[in-house]
Amino acid sequence: MNTHGQTALTFSPRRVSAMMLRYWYLLRSSWPRLLDLVYWPTVQMVTWGFLQYYIATNAGFFARAGGTFIGAVLLWDILFRGQLGFSISFLEEMWSRNIGNLMMSPLRPLEFIMALMVMSVVRLSIGAVPVTFLAIAFFGFNLYGLGLALVAFFCNLMLTSWAIGIFVSGLILRNGMGAENFAWSIMFVFMPLTCVYYPVTTLPVWLQPVAWMLPPTYVFEGMRALLIHKVFRPDLMVDALALNALFLAFGVLAFLKLLQSARRHGTLMQTGE
User: Is 151 a residue whose pLDDT tops 90?
Assistant: First the structure.
């Protein structure tokens, strides 16, 4: 074996160091990746910490709160999968490197957004509807028993999921696939703040106004009022709808601005990291 072959087969700390340096530069230059490192531990600690506090201070409450956790899980799934269905349809264009072709075609951005909205409903229906029947079979909880209230819950949650999905799609357009993690994880930052499993009063007083600025908070509070007190709160749904109108308008405006910035900086054709 020649000298070059021996060198190639010899373990080289320098080559290892070079690859480590390559990944370090990639991580250091991408703020979405840096944020993702602290994101999940923080979200899980905050969410389950509040839930533990709520359970500890309301031990006798759960005898009359049957179905609230299952209902919260199912409604949360609508919110999460609605956004994910939107984002995945968008990411498929990024993965196939087709986004540049679409943006140069006669397709208008708002038409593209509308198509992604419809696909999010289709994906959600395929994934979530069977789960609702499993909830009936295994736990005797019928989400459809909520009646017309379910329509209000569903519409508000979908509007929120679209607003966030549109905004995240804009971030990916502008920052490339280094921001892809937001599509998978951004919704979970809302879990502790929207009070999916516990009422707003469980949060620290200074954090409660932040919770009331988020449309899903009204939906989950409305769900608990319906299941526990048998009262439908239309005022909560109207407030959520008003906030969703603002969220959706901001999401669309942000998408258009980020798309414009991506075109200006030439990042539409750079779908790599």
Answer: yes
